[in-house]
Write a structure and sequence with these properties.
By secondary structure, this protein is α+β, with helices and mostly antiparallel strands. It is built from five helices and five strands. β2, α1 and β3 (57-61) form a beta-alpha-beta unit. It is globular.
Length: 136
């Protein structure tokens, strides 16, 4: 598996519920940072334009070994450096999450290996507000 972006020991994966219109309420990605997002179903593809307009890098539909959620979900990969540099942004985003998984733990990284690889290899620049080159 490739190295994680930013502060590897502090990188986290956030799992958010993704009902219709969920992306409208996400805070824009701060300039100079990258946050990648995958969704759990084809229905989640509708959020791509809104995500990209807010500076998120959309990486498509991917599934994880995590227990299946009752609703559609979105997984966001966030570098620790972003959370430290923009704590208010981080608190706003983390408050929406059902799960916050630290990637500093080997078992978590092993369980999420395929999903993390998708986030790291499916980098597409987003033309939105916080668009930046990848951190990896």
């Amino acid at each position: 598996m490739r190295p994680l972006p930013g502060d590897t020991p502090e990188a986290v994966l956030l799992r958010l519920p993704a009902p219709a219109g969920w992306a409208r309420d996400l805070p824009p990605v701060p300039l100079g940072f990258r946050v990648s997002v995958s969704v759990s179903s084809l229905d989640g593809l509708r959020a791509q334009p809104e995500l990209e307009a807010r500076g998120y890098s959309f990486v498509g539909v991917h599934h994880t070994a995590l227990p299946r959620a009752a609703t559609d979900v979105a997984d966001l990969l966030v570098a620790g450096a972003l959370a430290h540099a923009h704590p208010r942004w981080w608190r706003t985003l983390a408050a929406r999450a059902d799960r916050v998984l630290s990637l500093s733990f080997g078992p978590v990284r092993a369980m999420l290996g395929d999903l993390l690889e998708a986030h790291l290899t499916s980098v597409r620049p987003s033309p939105g507000v916080g668009s930046t080159p990848p951190l990896c």
